[in-house]
């Protein structure tokens, strides 16, 4: 090939690259949980001793049960995408997100990410005995924001959460909040920062309708800011309103991956809704 052609190809490649930047690559991922002492009637000291003395080193010999939660999942997520994760209870959605966030090891296969993905609700290391106010600072610092950045965005975070709509709750310890209020504050803190990859697990289901609308709006903004958003939800409406692409998991396997409407149509046929 002539040098000019090669240069042209390189330019084309760069253009393509500029248009679709991968943020998460999941390649043949398997995740297996190991549960110790899962069988009943094995809690006694003698049973434990005989387990220790038993020969063999396999999981079964050690009395460990395994749950194969994610089975050979592969996909590439790009910048600017909002990807919904759907599937029946126990299909592996949360497990997949936790593995992408680096919180669970891969049994087989690989996960490549651009930067550190933020998993909402886990990465926000909030403390129940501290006030909402202190938690905004703590959560902000935990996400890598500077004190100045947090100060500048503090009011916006509190306003977005709506915690103070019914009185001065932000100066009370978080343990006095309802689960919905706590979830709203967590979402507001996480959403205050620009994320390369933001993963939200059912967060929208906890707030009331007004807050859901606000958070859906924020997800659209985060997407526009060129990050990638993953959303696990059992609400097909939330998925429709916020996501442009959907991954459908069933029994740990990726059953379908495509545009929201196409996948939801098949999923609704499957669930009979
Ligand atoms: N900590 C754990 N230890 C052992 N098994 C687990 C653990 N967490 C989840 N599992 C199992 O892994 C499988 C996938 O669970 P996961 O929570 O990822 O599903 P999900 O699709 O998020 O479900 P849901 O819609 O009910 O939240 C299930 O069979 C579940 O029992």
TrEMBL record:
One Pfam entry name: ABC_tran
Domain of life: Bacteria
InterPro entries in the record: AAA+_ATPase (IPR003593), ABC_transporter-like_ATP-bd (IPR003439), ABC_transporter-like_CS (IPR017871), ABC_transpr_TagH-like (IPR015860), Bact_Polysacc_Export_ATP-bd (IPR050683), P-loop_NTPase (IPR027417)
Keyword tags: ATP-binding, Nucleotide-binding, Transport
CDD domains: ABC_KpsT_Wzt (cd03220)
Protein known as: ABC transporter ATP-binding protein
Family label: Belongs to the ABC transporter superfamily.
Coiled-coil features, chain-numbered ranges: none
ABC transporter domain ranges (all copies): 47-271
Protein species of origin: Streptomyces thermoalcalitolerans
GO molecular function: ATP binding
Entry annotated with the keyword Nucleotide-binding: yes
Glycoprotein found in the keyword field: no
